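Final report, Chapter 2: Outcomes

The project's central promise was a pipeline that accepts a single protein chain and returns its three-dimensional structure in a standardized token representation, suitable for archiving and comparison. That pipeline is now operational. To close this chapter, we reproduce one record exactly as it appears in the project archive, with the input sequence first and the structure output second.
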Amino acid sequence: MRRDHAEAVTEEVHEHDRGLSHDLPVLARRRMIRLMAGAGLIPLVGCTSEQGTSAGASSKGADGTSSAECATIPDETAGPFPGDGSNGVNVLTESGVVRDDITKSFGDSAGGTAAGVPLTVTLTVVDAASGCGTPKKGAAVYIWHCDRDGNYSLYSDGVTEENYLRGVQETDDKGQVTFRSVFPGCYAGRWPHIHFEVYGSLADATAATAITNTSQLAFPKDVCETVYASDGYERSMGNLSGLSLETDGIFSDGADQQLAAMKGSVARGYTATLTVPV
């Protein structure tokens, strides 16, 4: 069912993942806000931190940086493979979904393990109204992404019985959650990314109710090119070559707040960090 497996399915999934019918109003609203900000009508300053989550912004987040203004993380489509009950299967209500290592399937699924370059993802959830200065302790984050072949567990052909690369965690005193995963592949039509939903509490997340924010994390081009040159990602390198953040259907109107700060290597694995104002 993956886009790069069949042309007909590629077109269908490509449209849904860009959320054309659902997300054009959202994208249009974001572009209008940016235009108004450029004209000096409203302030629009993204949160930043030592983690480098927003290039060029002067504000600081819960990790100790100062802030005057803080923009909420942009709303994005959850795509066709959320696994949160909004499009068929619901993994959030299953025992075992609350975990930090999402590389393996859990419960009654097939029990497979996703292969790829190790990746540790840390999201810091902060209160936008406080200027990114207050961490959101006790919130919850659900993340999901494709494997190195571009397939989504629970949905794509060959991995419908798997539920790996999906997990939930409660934010700590610093507003942080950290997941151990693998670097996702690049499939046709989309820039490499990770989906995530923020909930007010762990109880809300595991009940699959009351989502407060839905967005996506983007990866820097140089890191993607390095990872995709390694074994197992051959298909991704070809898909990436025809893409850019500027032409991606989700990130084309600006990805400064969603571009992860990266450290590491293929041999040692990578870390990705992002501040998420809500």
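Archive annotation: The mean pLDDT is 82.
This record, like all others produced under the grant, will remain available to the consortium after the project formally closes.
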